[in-house]
Amino acid sequence: MIVQEDDAGASPSAPRAHAEAFRYTLAVIRDIQARTLLSRVDEIDMWFGLDFGMNLYRGCQHHCIYCDSRSACYGNDRFDEDICVKRNAIDVLREELRRKRKKGVVGTGSMNDPYMPAEADERLTQRALELLAEYGFGVHVITKSTLVLRDVSLLQKVARRSTAAVSLTITTLDDELARIVEPGAPPPSDRLRALRELADAGIEARVALMPVLPFLEDSWDAVRCLVERAHSAGVQAIVASFGVTMRDRQREYFYARLDENFPGLRRIYQERFGDRYVCAAPEAETLRARFEELCAAHGMRTSVRPLLAPSATELPLLA
After folding, report:
1. Domain around 262
2. In whole numbers, what is the pLDDT of the chain averaged over residues?
3. Are 114 and 155 in contact (CB under 8 A)?
4. 8 Å CB contact between 237 and 204
5. pLDDT digit string (tens) for 190-238?
6. For residue 211, what pLDDT is reported?
7. What is d(CA 134, CA 132) in angstroms, rounded to the nearest whole number?
8. Residue 157: CATH number of its domain
9. 119 inside domain
10. 101 pLDDT exceeds 70?
11. What does the alpha-carbon distance between residue 25 and residue 19 come to, in Å, rounded to a whole number?
C-alpha cells in the first residue's frame, strides 16, 4: 500500500529473517516529500565523528524494543505501523551536496536503519552513496542489517576520495535474546560475519555496542566475549553505551515488551530508574573501564576524528 504525505507526518513498521518475522513485513509504505536531507552536526560528535546527519526514511522495520525513535518528541505517532519513503530524497540530496562549501562525513542510521528490508526495493541508501562518492563526501553507516554488503563496491568508491565506515549495532551475541529485543533485525551471528566481509573489503568496520540493557546484557562476560569476537572479525573501533535511555511512550512500549518476555523485570527497572531518561547499568563505570582496557589491548579504537570539527583531535566515542 502506498500513500502520499508531506515529510511533517509519517512513520515505520517491520520485517526480518527469524522464523516468526513474517508479521514484521506487513508494513504500510508511504511516500512523503523531504524538505531537506542534510542536517549539520553543530557540536563535536563524540560518538561517530559526523559532520552531517541524513535520514532517507521515517520509521524502521527492525522493531527493536528499546528504540528511542518512538519517543513523542520525534512526532512519529505510527512508528510501528508505517514506513515512510522520502521519494524526492535523492534530488534534494544532490542539490544540497552541490551547494556545500566544505566536505565532511555524512552519517545515516541514527533515527532508523538505512538498510531495513524496504531498502532492498527502494534503494535510497544505495543511490545516496553514489552521490556521496560523486561529490567527495565521506559516510558513516549505522545498521543491523547484512544488506549493507550489497553496497561494498560503493563504500569502496566513497573511501577512495574520503572516508567510509560501517558500524554494525550488536548489543548481544545471543541470537535468541536478540530475537526478542531486536525482532526485525538479522541475528548477531550474521552481523559478525558481515563485519568480517566489510573488513576484508577494506571498509572500516566498527561495532555500536549500544544500548547495553541493564540486567539482560550487562555482564562483564557478555561484554568481554563481544569485544573478543569483534576483534576476530577485523573491527577497528567500538562505541559503547552501558545502559539504555527511556522516556514517555518509548518507556511504555519497552516495559510492555519486558512484561511479555521477562516477567518481573519491569518492576526492577521501575524501582531502580524511576522516570530517569538515562538508565545506566548497575556496574556501568566498572564495565567502561574494563572495556576500554580490553579494546586498547586489542588495538581497537574508542575514539574518532571528525573531518570538520574545530579541533580535529582524537575524541572519545563516549565520555
Report:
1. 2-300
2. 88
3. no
4. yes
5. 999 999 999 999 999 999 999 999 999 999 999 999 999 999 999 999 9
6. 97
7. 5
8. 3.20.20.70
9. yes
10. yes
11. 12
At a CB cut-off of 8 Å and minimum separation 6, what does 204 contact? 159, 163, 164, 165, 166, 236, 237
Chain segment 103-147, per-residue pLDDT in tens: 999 999 989 999 999 999 999 999 999 999 999 999 999 999 999
Q: Which residue has the cell 542489517?
A: 145
Location of C-alpha cell 576500554: 292
CB 131 within 8 A of CB 169: no
- How many domains would you assign to the chain? 1
More confident residue, 7 or 1: 7
Residue position matching grid coordinates 512523503: 32
Kindly state whether residue 205 falls inside one of the protein's structural domains.
yes
C-alpha cell, 84: 515512510
Q: Between helices 188-200 and 152-161, what is the axis angle to 10°?
A: 50
For residue range 6-15, list pLDDT tens digits in order.
343 332 222 3
